Here is the input.
Amino acid sequence: MRRLLYSILLFVAVLPMVAQSARDCIRMGNVAYRQGQYDKAETYYLKSIEKSPSFEAYYNLGNAYIMQQKDSTAFENYKKADSIGTNDPMRRAKNFHNMGNIWYAQGLAATRQEGGNAVSAFQNAVNFYKSSLRCNPDDNETRYNLAMAQYQLKKNQNNNGGGGGNDDKNQDKQDEEQQKQDEQKQDQQQNNEQNKQQQQQPEQQKDEMSDQTAEQLLNSAQQDEKGVQHKVNQKPNNGRRALEKDW
Here is the structure.
């Protein structure tokens, strides 16, 4: 009688597990997650995926991995959630937001590591935060994270953080060299024009300054003054407004 009772109890205990649907597994995983039992939640979410892969299961599984400090594995599950997709833009926004957070954290870690590619990480964070805001433009937290990621991206580019930070400097140098070449070309053209006009003047007028020559010299001086003023106006402003908040 005792053996039969044990058999019945075992059967009753196993029966709910067999009858559990993918949705039931997600619900039980959520209960475990809220209780801080992240490894147990992970198990339920994986069971749900085995039964029927869904956006919710992959997204929740990613969250469980995040809480276990398994960022890379979490990111892969967020990607799978995105590949399945959902009709709820708010859920997509949260998924992209979390993916951006992972890249932002990697960017911060790269700034503390020699040879770390912080620029690439922050650029990815910016891209995912933008994707999140496309789904939910009213999310202030994502908007703030985007601003911080953009700030870190620019900061590390200027400091040559993580490689590739000289692009802006090289571009500025090229622009400056091009401007000098244009000015030299313009000056040469003006000199050639003046020489040509002087050669065409009669011999008896070489020692005299005609009204036309005086006007040309005046125009040339005005042009030089405009060029100097243009350089002053085009001088880059290296000042950057400090952010009021830290990450």
The two ends are 65 Å apart (CA to CA).
